[in-house]
Amino acid sequence: MIDDIPQPKRPYSLPTILSPDEIAALLEAPRRLKSRAMLTTLYAAGLRVSELCHLQVADVDSACMVLRIRQGKGQQDRYVMLSLRLLPLLRHYWQQDKPRTWLFPGPDPTKPITRETVYRICHHAGVQAGLAKPVHPHTLRHCFASHLLEAGVDVRRLQLLVGHQSLRTTSRYLHVSPQALHAIPSPLDTLPLDAPRESRP
Q1: Domain 15-182 is classified in which CATH homologous superfamily?
Q2: Active site residue 141
Q3: Is 124 an active-site residue?
């Protein structure tokens, strides 16, 4: 009988989206090179925080300019773009910190950094950047998707980049993309109405 009881619907809220200027301020805020490299990788590739934590040094393919994501959500591998700006930052970080297996190791170099640590770094960077909006790792993933939509990338291609199994999940970014909203005229704008007259005091 329990299976026949309808489950309450979960409230749906739109993700927080940062402007390009706010993203730039966030990525430049951390003083530590490793923190800047992590946040920049999250945004440049649109990664989930778990995917960032499990990146390995060998997953950076500079010859093909891709990052290999091992066993992402749904236990599927995929490739994402390696930004031309991200690559020299990762090289600089690698030369300084010399990570071996994990690209972003934790205090124990044989283990990857934890999700909780990435969350703290992201939140602290948002405070340092003076952002009024709440910032967490998934915010950068949302911004990656929304900014690509604004740049003209189609939803199907975006679905492959972010690793969504359902196109419906990807299409929610259409609701938060100002460019997508501005591209569709209101039906009011098509009516044969006279221009509104300014009221006189």
Answers
A1: Intergrase catalytic core (1.10.443.10)
A2: yes
A3: no
